[in-house]
Design brief:
The protein is an alpha/beta fold. The chain has six helices and nine strands. It has one domain: fumarase, CATH 3.20.130.10. The protein starts with a strand and ends with a helix. α2 packs across α3. The longest helix is centred in the last third of the chain and has 20 residues. It is globular and about 60 Å long. The strands form two sheets. It has a five-stranded mixed β-barrel. Strands 4-5 form a two-stranded antiparallel ribbon. α4 links the parallel β6 and β7.
């Protein structure tokens, strides 16, 4: 298993191939639909983001957080379905130099193409393991855009050996999801014949 430190370089992500397992140490940022849209609005208006995504990893996650005084702690941090960010992600990757997306379920071919063009990978995290995933989060550095609500705000998280994560889309245009789909398409006639389905 490969251990990677954030921020990630272009060389880091270009060296990863689909199927590899990795763990991350450093700073990651949660972001879902609303945060993606606001970040792109800021970019179009020429405003700086209150956080630096260059070389970073975006975690598609709506965490459950608990506050104790001035300090936040992560209760659960499972991945959310990434595909719904597919219309926004290519521009986010290009505009902010994002090097990794963490989520579940994969992303569109448009996003895969952007990952290949700009040097980014998709790291799949098993769904349903939100409490286990939270154990890899050492500290909550801050929260941005709290007005969006707990799930949609951008949480700045320090992680240590976060994972294991699977390289499901690499920076060379390869996707495990597409490969599985191709395999199923090839095997479908055989499966149907065995099941007696026309």
């Amino acid at each position: 298993m490969r251990e990677l430190k954030l921020p990630l370089s272009l060389e880091d992500v270009k060296g990863l191939m689909i199927g590899e397992s990795v763990k991350l140490t450093g700073r990651i940022f949660t972001a879902r639909d609303e945060a993606h849209m606001r970040a792109l609005e800021f970019h179009k208006e020429g405003k700086e983001l209150p956080f630096d995504l260059n070389g970073s990893a975006i975690f598609h996650c709506g965490p459950i957080m608990r506050r104790s005084g001035e300090k936040w702690a992560v209760v659960a941090a499972g991945p959310t379905t990434s595909f719904r960010m597919s219309t926004l992600e290519p521009e986010v990757i290009e505009s902010f130099g994002v090097r990794a997306i963490i989520g579940k379920g994969g992303m569109s071919r448009l996003t895969i193409d952007a990952m290949e063009r700009f040097g980014c990978v998709y790291l799949a995290l098993t769904g349903g393991a939100a409490v286990i995933a939270a154990k890899g989060i050492e500290d909550v550095r801050g929260v941005h855009w709290e007005d969006l609500g707990m799930a949609e705000a951008v949480w700045e998280l320090d992680v240590s050996h976060f994972g294991p994560l699977t390289v499901a889309i690499d920076a060379h245009g390869n996707s495990l999801y597409e490969k599985v789909g191709e395999y199923i398409d090839k095997r479908l006639p055989f499966i149907k014949s065995k099941l007696g389905i026309d």
